[in-house]
Amino acid sequence: MPENNSYDAIVVGSGISGGWAAKELCDKGLKTLVLERGRMVEHLKDYPTTTLDPWQFEHRGVVDEIKRENPVVGRCYAFEEATQHFFVKDKEHPYVQEKPFDWIRGYQVGGKSLIWARQTQRWSKYDFEGPARDGFAVDWPIRYDDLAPWYSHVERFAGISGDRDGVDTLPDGEFLPAFEMNCVEKEMQKRIMAAYNDRHVVQGRCAHLTKPNPIHTQQGRAQCQARHLCYRGCPYGAYFSSNSSTLPWAAKTGNLTIRPDSVVHSIIYDEQKQKASGVRVIDARTNQATEFFAKVIFINAACLNTNLILLNSISKRFPNGFGNDNGLLGKYIAFHNYRGNLTAVFEGFEDRYYYGRRPTAAMMPNFRNVHKQETDFQRGYMVHYSAERSGWNRGAGLDGIGPDYKNSLLEPGEWQVFMMMQGEHVPLEKDHVRLSPDLKDVWGIPQLVISVDHSENDEKIIKDFHEQGRQMMEKAGCKNIVDIDTRQAPGLDIHEMGGVRMGKDPKTSMLNKWNQFHNCPNVFVTDGACMTSTATQNPSITFMALSARAANFAVDELKKGNI
Ligand SMILES: Cc1cc2nc3c(=O)[nH]c(=O)nc-3n(C[C@H](O)[C@H](O)[C@H](O)COP(=O)(O)OP(=O)(O)OC[C@H]3O[C@@H](n4cnc5c(N)ncnc54)[C@H](O)[C@@H]3O)c2cc1C
Ligand code: SF4
Question: What is the predicted pLDDT for the residue at 397?
């Protein structure tokens, strides 16, 4: 570490977006410091449960008591005995829920890249045009064509599997071969697409190496074995994470320094130079405060923590939070609406089965209000569905012992179908985060107050999904269709976005088209906080593309002496 703590670039956060910023900056020759509040997690070495079988866990994988003690993170489907060490427990990092909000976090090197579900769908031109056409939020300062080459750039390196479907609402990318749908999913696909000319069913694109290219083997990564134990960390490096991919690649350049256990407190603003000069850091273990300096700073602490750091970055120039001349910092927080589910059974194909545990599902890009406004709600939803033989894991839930018990497990049950929505939440000014005036964390940093809610528009979207989903299931031949409103709070979708939105006008947005603060060009935000709207696609591939694009721009600007 240089004696004067100075680098070319600082990246705050080592998750999906920070990993990409670091990789690009290091590839371009910048001495880059990555500051990460959590502990070090080294690829392979620090995946303690990755090869364990169910009977090797003390509680056979079930952690009901821990879930009761941690009701927020306990509601996350991926939180279990095998993965709990990668999730923040409720009491460790408290926050204030002005309205119910399940804030799911992963504080470690790699962030949530270790525990994400790896679904990676590009946005389409309709998504970027949405706010301007429908009159909400502000117009995006970029369009699909601005991001398309950067989607390609990150897809080639990360390794994304998928079919080339030729659907304009879900553009194709640089794909490795797709996972196969099973026979019931295929049959449903055929019947749904025959019944509607505006609806497409495709295999979900996901960040798995189905057939590694040389760029992946150079990263030390190998082919996916379809075990679907991914949330434990993959021993093959077969899914994309910062730990298996971007960070080790950046380290190989010799330009990367990672400093774990470094809680970033705030950005330092140099009033004379009129730009940011570095960040204040508190050592998570010793509480010692240190300052680090750089010419360019990327804030990638994940949406809500990025908002927190900026709100906490007070200076004479920015008394209301970093870059916050227009009072919009922390506002227009948005998320994906996951409340609608449907279940059903599918009769037929009882003589058919499938092998492996495929880590993706069939999906349908949004088909509502795509070309024009045509419903009584704004925007729409994406649909995911999957079919499986019931009882594949019923051994864990059934009573019994001996040969009769074993024999009862040999016959698979009926085909069951699960369908869910991923709705676009239209951002509203009232949905916001702010700093608590009195509650602090153990490092003396104010706790975050989260005030975010479902809207009337979200309720209408849920109703429409239940109607349309039921109709599609009927046309596909499903029976016993049941609709469910989980009534879950926002946050559990783990796709929080906004608060530091991009836009064309400094009066109505915080960041310009390169993710640079309008009023402090050497600071960039490229995680979910920068998102002007949410669209319906899983967001992380868009965060990756924005991060890579902004990092390359920052290097060019630095060379030109503009920042
Ligand atoms: C169970 C689950 C399933 C998901 N499935 C999908 C999916 O299928 N597709 C998809 O697109 N997305 C999915 N996501 C969401 C995805 O994980 C996030 O969108 C993505 O990780 C965001 O990247 P990020 O870099 O913004 O944040 P993160 O990956 O969370 O990284 C942020 C990092 O910043 C660090 N940090 C925070 N505050 C500070 C601070 N003050 N100082 C220093 N460091 C700090 C954190 O410790 C963390 O390491 C899922 C998430 C979960 C948990
Ligand atoms: S399904 Fe593939 S990516 Fe997931 S743990 Fe298994 S081999 Fe790794």
Answer: 60
Question: At residue 296, does pLDDT exceed 60?
Answer: yes
User: Strand 520-525 relative to strand 289-299: parallel, antiparallel, unpaired?
Assistant: parallel
Atom of ligand 1 nearest to the CA of 306: 38
Strand-pair category, 202-203 with 175-176: unpaired
**């003589």: which residue's tokens?**
351
Q: Which-ligand-closest: CA of 235?
A: 2
C-alpha to C-alpha distance for 542 and 549, rounded to whole angstroms: 11
Give the residue whose CA is nearest to atom 4 of ligand 2. 230
C-beta 37 within 6 A of ligand 1:
yes
8 Å CB contact between 24 and 552: yes
> Which is it for the CA torsion 54, 59, 64, 70, positive or negative?
negative
Are the C-beta atoms of 280 and 303 separated by less than 8 Å?
Answer: no
Among residues 171, 209, 85, 273, the alpha carbon closest in space to that of 542 is found at: 171
Ligand at shortest distance from the CA of 229: 2
pLDDT at 400 over 80: no
Q: Is the CB of 465 under 6 A from ligand 2?
A: no
C-alpha triplet 109, 332, 495: angle, nearest 5°: 40
Index of the ligand 2 atom closest to the CA of residue 357: 1
pLDDT band at 3 (very low <50, low <70, confident <90, very high): low
Asked if residue 79 has its Cβ within 6 Å of ligand 1, the reply is no
User: CB-based contacts of 106: which residues, under 8 Å, 6+ apart?
Assistant: 15, 38, 86, 87, 88, 112, 114, 115
Does the pLDDT of residue 393 top 90, yes or no?
Answer: no
Tell me, in angstroms, the distance from the centre of ligand 1 to residue 163's CA: 26
Question: From ligand 1's centre to the CA of 397, what distance in Å?
Answer: 32
Nearest to 364 by CA among 344, 346, 384, 380: 384
Percent of the chain whose pLDDT exceeds 90: 91
Question: Which residue has its alpha carbon closest to ligand 1 atom 52?
Answer: 116
How does DSSP assign 22-44, residue by residue? HHHHHHTT--EEEE-SSB---TT
Q: Which bound ligand lies closest to the C-alpha atom of 210?
A: 2
Q: What is the mean pLDDT of residues 4-29?
A: 97
Distance 114 CA to ligand 2 centre (A): 12
**Residue 547: alpha-carbon gap to chain centroid:** 13
**In the prediction, which pLDDT does 403 show?**
87
Backbone conformation region of residue 250, classed left if phi is above 0, alpha if psi is from -120 to 50, else beta: alpha
One-letter amino acid of 100: P
How many angstroms does the Cα of residue 105 sit away from the middle of ligand 1? 7
Locate all alpha helices (DSSP H) within 246-337, ordered by sequence: 247-252, 303-311
Sign of CA dihedral 173, 516, 103, 463: negative
Rounded Cα distance between 512 and 65, Å, is: 47
For ligand 1, whether the C-beta of 116 sits within 6 Å is: yes
- Residue linked to tokens 């603003």: 269
Distance 62 CA to ligand 2 centre (A): 21
pLDDT tens, position by position, 447-502 = 999 999 999 999 999 999 999 999 999 999 999 999 999 999 999 999 999 999 99
Closest listed residue to residue 236, CA positions, set 208, 215, 204 = 208
Ligand 2 centroid – CA 229 distance (Å): 6
